[in-house]
Amino acid sequence: MQSLADESVVVIGAGIGGLSTACYLADAGADVRVIEKNEQLGGRASRLERDGFRFDMGPSWYLMPDVFERFFGHFDRTPTDYYELTHLDPHYRIFFKDGDEVEITPDLERTKAVFEEYESGAGEALERYLEKSRENYEVGMEHFVYEDRSRLRDFVDLDVARQARGLSLLGSMQGHVEGYFDHPKLQQIMQYTLVFLGGSPTNTPALYNLMSHVDFNLGVWYPDGGIGAVIDGVAELGAELGVTYDTDRPATAIKGREGAFLVETPTGPLRPDLVVSNASYAHTEQELLPPERRGYDADYWESRTYAPSAFLLYLGVEGDVDDLAHHTLVLPTDWQEHFDQIFEDPQWPDDPAYYLCVPSETDDTVAPDGHSALFVLVPIAPGLEDTPEIRESYRERILDDIADNTGTDLRDRIVLEERFAVEDFANRYNSYDGTALGLAHTLRQTALFRPPHRSKGVDGLYFVGGDTTPGIGVPMCLISGELTAETVLEDYGRAASVER
């Protein structure tokens, strides 16, 4: 067992990746302090609380429960030591804008029957698709997610090649899905999870069909109290392991190197032996490090493909919204135009696909009696002009669209409203161009093509979070924390004198 006893570490940023890394490093004996620029822990998984309403501001889907079980299991704990889970039924509801309505439930036979209604043989095709998805998930997670293959030499290995032989590594998700289903609505159902990866059907590798195993086979869950309860659980675990937390304490510069760092903050400098940044990779390099210590220049960050930003409405409303499920998707029958207006010709979408989260359908603690809490999320291009006038106009468009396509008119029942968009992502999270997620999962930005956990320019500086491996999403960032901690231990760990 490797130990980091006598090493001090500052983790910059209290997103799920930073909190995860802190747990692993503290467990290895390091003295760990997490500093966070905002008023609460969680990063993009912050909470918004107003007038008795509570919203998860960012992630709201609890997927890949096995990842959370593995994380807590490393510390001889279980998720239920910190929060309870509810299996959602339906997993989600889809309103197509031509009037069709589809529910995806935990009952696979029922889902197969839904698919058959659209296309003869599609039920059996779904089974074949999910079998391939399961295979990709199991092999991919074991050999390519939990193992950090971030360098070319990690792939030039016969065992790696053997494990990869059966995976759908090349081609796009669009081409892969078309091999199973002809009907465009079925293709959309199989591809909606790409929003969690920040990509489109045409720029996301077919490998990510593994997300359908996550969706259909592992299920969609709700942690009582929302994703914020998961943040609380991971932070509580860290505190039990000795991690300390400072909120409202941004890092303003990183100077020095391993054994002699100086992390500047408004309330005084910190002098750790090692530093882990869970802040935006681009922000850390371009704003916190001097030019000669950066691993990537401004041209590199300018050339990347970024995941969408988002236009969000957090709404407290009078009465019920029973036409909406806990997770609800509203999709145009042809959504390619929306993706084009994110990745090809950036503009506010004319006919948007969007997501509604209504936690009050499951959890009566998130809204006052007689009220509902929900938020609307419209993926939009990062870097768009974002003014109060544009937000007001788009708000009107979205409320009309919800009424027209779900039968739920919210307009006269809204008692609380907050808005969040491109400028807020940039200001609150220091995200590049206001992206909501970070680097998209294109083929050229997957695995070894993502920035590494080790800084290229500063010994003792490490990175964690969605911009590095394994990538975007709460489960992936949780794993990223493990991979970053393993990298630190590889570089600075010593043989422990006693077992944990």
Output the keywords.
single chain, 500 residues, alpha/beta, FAD/NAD(P)-binding domain, Guanine Nucleotide Dissociation Inhibitor, domain 2, 3 domains, seven-stranded mixed beta sheet
What's this model, at a glance?
This is Phytoene desaturase. The protein is an alpha/beta fold and 500 residues long.
Written overview of the protein:
Keywords: Carotenoid biosynthesis, Oxidoreductase. It comes from Natronolimnohabitans innermongolicus JCM 12255. This is Phytoene desaturase. Residues 16-489 form the Amine oxidase domain. This protein is an alpha/beta fold. The chain folds into three domains: 2-84 and 225-304 and 439-495, 3-Layer(bba) Sandwich (FAD/NAD(P)-binding domain), CATH 3.50.50; 109-218, no CATH class; 306-429, Guanine Nucleotide Dissociation Inhibitor, domain 2. It is built from 15 helices and 20 strands. The strands form six sheets. It has a seven-stranded mixed sheet. It has a five-stranded parallel sheet with strand order 10-3-2-13-19, with helices on one face. A two-stranded antiparallel sheet has the order 1-20. The radius of gyration is 22 Å and the shape is globular.
